[in-house]
Request: fold
Amino acid sequence: MAKRIDVSGLSAYYGNHRAIEDISMTVEPRSVTAFIGPSGCGKSTFLRTLNRMHEVTPGGRVEGKVMLDDENLYGPGVDPVAVRRTVGMVFQRPNPFPTMSIYDNVAAGLRLNGTARRKSELDGIVEKSLKGANLWNEVKDRLNKPGAGLSGGQQQRLCIARAIAVEPQVLLMDEPCSALDPISTLAIEDLIGQLKERFTIVIVTHNMQQAARVSDRTAFFNLAGVGQPGRLIEIDETQRIFSNPSVQATEDYISGRFG
Amino acid sequence: MGHEMSETLTQDALPASSLSPLAHRRIPRWAPAGIAVAAIALGCGVGAAAGLASHLQWGLISLLLFVGLTYGITAGVEGRRQARDRVATSLVWACFVVAVVPLYSLLQTTISKGVKVLDGNFLTHSMGGVITTQPGGGVYHAVIGTLEQVGLASLIAVPVGLLTAIYLVEYGRGKLAKVVTFFVDVMTGVPSIVAGLFILAFWIIILGFGYSGFAGALALAILMMPVVVRSTEEMLKLVPNELREASLALGVPKWRTILKVVLPTSIGGILTGVMLAVARIAGETAPVLLLVFGNQLINNNPFSGAQSSLPYYVYEQYTNGNDASFDRAWAAALVLIAFVMILNLVARGIARWKAPKTGR
Ligand SMILES: Nc1ncnc2c1ncn2[C@@H]1O[C@H](COP(=O)(O)OP(=O)(O)OP(=O)(O)O)[C@@H](O)[C@H]1O
Ligand SMILES: [Mg+2]
Reply:
């Protein structure tokens, strides 16, 4: 199921503005990779190039290669829609569909894709996804209530359930806990620990402790200066990054000496 | 010395009563209503004394007195900042009253004059065989005409308008979108008589078709389309981008995202806009005058032959210039208002029913 991501020489633009420059890295399958770095250094932009969501923004453009196992996501003839089915995404702010019930939100990916299924099969997938997102017990009695009526933390787990219901190979998470309380954050961190057995996970976070707790590898991004594009400074085992990074800037950032 | 200074200062800063520094004297809650009553009484008194015949003038004097009195009294009791706040509030209320009075009087006049001949007979009969100076006859043929013309116009304008709005919001980039927006803006400003003349020249004179409800519907569609585009555009823009991205990130194609996520989220507002556009064209007279021609008899076929319509019927009866016709004109006007009101209520109902749900 899970796949390896191999990025080489990737740059992303907003119109003429180059937001990230020449990024190369490997994301191991069945592991959690954390992206850290100061605000505006291009973590979200880079994350969104990994499932071709970057080009959804007007003027968004990408150069370089992203290999998913042995297929180039930016190769000729590759359908971005198919890419996004393989590489799922969870956003910073919980965004359940307001017109849909909890059940319909989880089933949305399958239903909207037009992959018609029998009701019993769909029921099974919804239950499995909600259990996978640690939300089943809280909502099993009100699956037909609107998804927007849940708390923020529950909504975020609903969005995770919605993302894993389509069985992607890779799950991208952009600051999934930044709007949540410590308990919901813990619930989602536990969840990430479980999900990595099935998926390749990439998570953007501003919380050093979180990166240290959940990730196997950590990538540090930085800006060369104001108006300059963001770059990958280093990527390594999380333990090494936090104890003995090979670049001074990483150590400065982690110990809070700048940014 | 310094100690004494600070003590006097603090005492001055405190209000005269023994309230805390954050509280201050307030006028009682009934005061605004009291001031309003006093202002109206005074306004009427002044008006009567000055011998002003028009009650409108009495009302305006009362309004001015109301705003002035509010300011004076609150400034005296509560201070100037509060007074300004209250003046703003009372101005808003005054404007509300000014806006509602004509509406109310219009409704009241139409209802009181319209109910005279409005009955089952009036709604189910045409003007066939009725001598215009005699009572009798009805609006059935005009209701049929309005329903068919407005229905046909909606059938043309709503799909085109919706698709245009979707193009502009979801796909439109660059030159073409700008050109389309420009033309929609221009079309918004087209007077209804011009739309009517355009169809007259194009459909009836050049292409040689006769007068018909459909010709009128074409002109009405021209008037309706920009309204639908504009209101739909605004509603689509209100849909948060996050929802589109959430759907796209699930691997849903863009067209399905629009169909299944964007449109359902905004359908309430879109329908309200469409209903308002329908209400707008339901009252158009000029294109009907030019293109549908008017008819005393029932013509169920909108594609051939002259028809009538409610606004045209009102105009026609009014120009007859006798009491029986005046009564019929008022009754038809009431039917038209009721038609538009029902449409609005339906739109509101649908909007509420379809609105995104947040309850638990
Ligand atoms: N839609 C956009 N249009 C134009 N420029 C953008 C857009 N989104 C981001 N940028 C620019 O791209 C650069 C990288 O932004 P990005 O959102 O990727 O940063 P980030 O590392 O995720 O920051 P944060 O930690 O605050 O989320 C910034 O300079 C930003 O101004
Ligand atoms: Mg970001």
Q: What stands out?
A: Residues A 14, 17, 19, 39-45, 57 surround adenosine-5'-triphosphate (ligand 1) (CB under 6 Å). Chain B has 14 helices and no strands. Chain B touches chain A at residues 173, 240, 242-253, 256-257, 260-261, 264-265, 354, 356-360 (CB under 8 Å).
